[in-house]
Amino acid sequence: MFTVKNEAGSLADAIAILGKHGYNMKVIRSRPSKNENWQYYFYTEVEGNIDTEEGNKMLKDLEKECNMIKVIGTYIEDMKI
Questions:
Q1: Mind listing the pLDDT tens digit for each residue in 3-33?
Q2: Domain assignment present for 79
Q3: Per the domain annotation, does 81 fall within a domain?
Q4: Which of 65, 11, 19 has its CA nearest to residue 38?
C-alpha cells in the first residue's frame, strides 16, 4: 500500500520502480484518503519475493518516491503441479 504526491506522473514513477527491479504488478486498486482531498491510497499485489536484496532496494526506491509505503503482507502463490 502506498500514497504518492498529487502531481502529474507520480503514480507512473512509483509503478516504474516495481518494473525496474523486476517485479510484476498483478493488481492495483485505489481508495480515497479520509484525511485529505484528492489523496488516494494504492493497494497493489506484486509478484516476486521482497525478502531479498533486490526487494529491499525496491522498497527503498519506493520510499523516496512515495509519501507513505506499507507492506501489508506477503503470500506464496498457489503453484499448479
A1: 998 889 999 999 999 999 999 999 999 999 8
A2: no
A3: no
A4: 11
